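Provenance and format

Records in this collection were gathered into a single text stream. Each protein contributes a sequence line and a token line. The two records reproduced below are adjacent in the stream.
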Amino acid sequence: MNAFCILFSDTFNSDNLGELTAKRNIASMPFGGRYRLVDFMLSNLVNSFVPNVGVIAKDKYSSLADHLSSGKDWGLNRKNGGIKILTPYITGNNIVYRNKFEALCNAKDYIGHMLQEYCIIADANIICNIDLDRVFDMHIENDADMTVIYTDTKIGTDDTEIFCNDEGKIIDALYHSESSENQGNVIMKVYILKKSLLNNIIDKGATFGWNDINKDFIAQNLNNYKIIGYKHNGYNKIIRSLKDFYQANMDLLKSEVRKELFETERKIFTQIKDSVPTFYGDKCHMKNSLIADGCKIDGYVENSIIFRDVKIEAGSWVKNSVIMKGCVVKSGAAANFVVADKNSVITENQVLVGSSTLPFVIKKGTAV
């Protein structure tokens, strides 16, 4: 594909993931037993042979840098191009960029060195498996100035709903400051446009103090540019809150979701870890759960996502929960609707209960 990508590892909106993003950005959030959120969009790009990916990081990016490393696991470890983390330029008063336009201004040197004619702009907190080649082909066939990927879903806070005519051209856009139970065609924050137009947008954004691509460019320029929409009909989840994160993990327990995300020709890649197989004790009980490698399961596990190297001792039970790498659930402990961050411990006979809309969160590396 004759395109490079600018991939945002931060949402630049209010952080609704609490302790889970206290020491990491959203892109490096562990997910689904063995993945990070960034793996999905990065794999979509690699599957469409996008050769250069600039990952814009605002702060708390050490975990992201460790996960991506040289980009080898995605085939992006190259002498020229490949993957590059674009860190902020810290000024004398230590102010980093506050929105995406300031971040794009910081990336202008990187963009200027790209030889590809087109650019894909995307957020890294989107879980989906999408054929970007089809989107790019439609962009070229329609001679569009910009193509926006959208999906029919419930409207959330900060979503932009769009309205298209019969030819797919966006004719109106509506920003929502609050969530709603109504369905709408919502922008997924994945865009395709020419590099020359991107540079023009960055300059105008810097001049007029723009904050958001949807509100400040798309909604204001529907009559000045040909902006078309591409509807993604498959599974997708944008992670912006603890509720989103928990529900997306639980969605993986549905066979149809796993099949769409992982059982296609477009593979989802992640950092390779060599782990021993999971050990299941004689008295363990498993039901409708995903268990990663390297675990030792002696207790009861139901409707849960269990990451690598987790120990669930005999006499304990875990239900409707997400237990991340290196956690220990001690004998007699019980966890229901719990999200346990890495290397945390649920101590003996402790009972923790949350809900599907507000799971109980255990901070990374702590004992409860």
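Adjacent record:
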Amino acid sequence: MGKRERINIAPKSGTSRFNGEPLTETLTGTRTITEDEINQYQFFNLDPGGGSKSVLLPAEAAAKGALLFIANTANGAEVLSINNDASGTICTPTQDEVAILWCDGTNWHGIAGQEQ
């Protein structure tokens, strides 16, 4: 069997970004996800808390290799607007949708879809 290419997803420390523990939170306003948080969590269960809220992602240079899953756990028709650090919208998961986000060090990319 030939060699396989491996994608380096490790942060500056050289440890894996994947740990499987979710961060669960009800938002009261705009939520900024920090570089430390993306090094600790990959799964975010966020409830917009009664109205649509914004989520700001860390700077692209600090998030190279990050892969995040953000679930909108609202109990009503509430939207999470997930934005890059320049407030550009990446995706907008609604109630019971999940956003998958990844960063290449230059840009954040994302898609949102229905939970199964």
